[in-house]
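Hey L., structure's done. Input below.
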Amino acid sequence: MIVNAPAVVLSRRAFGEYDRLCTLFTEQFGKVPARFVGVNRAKGKMKALTEPGVWGEYRLHLSPRSEFAKAVGGRLISSFPSWREDLVRTFDALACLEMLDRLTPDHLPSPEKYRLICSTLAALDESPSEWLVPAFGLRLAEMIGISLRDRAPSPCRAVWNALHETEPAALAALPYDDAAGEAARRLLDEHLGAHAGRRLRAFEFRDEWNKTVPQGVPA
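Output:
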């Protein structure tokens, strides 16, 4: 069966000498591993459609005899160029992609998760906020049945409901508080790591990055 599926690329890795295996999060099929044949060749097509955080429409061949879909075409919807030019926002985007990848099973349709990742990546691009990663994690936790709505750390109580309920693009209007933001991230780090089976790499990397940032420079 061949289908056209809007999707966001969550991750990619080399597969054999010339192929790439990407994890796509689609609107109608949920998370789908997809093989892109030959894209690592010098003249390989669709390479731009395999980068993490790219939003596109993919033409996929789905077969019950294979654990992977095969990508046979596609078109770019957005590559979100603004956050790709900003290292901190790129880290934030990769954190959201990893959370969705690590905490979501394959082939479980979830249009609300698809809308959440698309709207969060768009907000990082057009109306960035330091609240976007905590808000994404909290809303994802609620969607997968491990809600933290009743566990607000004391610095976060005034904004906790807003982080659960505000659309990503509107978070830019919410004043950021360093103590509340870090408390929310720490809680997510512990909670999501426990459910994923190990600490998420995005949180590990952020800690290492913070150790290298000169004092007074935003992390």
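The helical segments are 81-84, 87-103, 111-126, 132-143, 160-165, 178-196, 201-212. The longest strand covers residues 2-15.

-- N.
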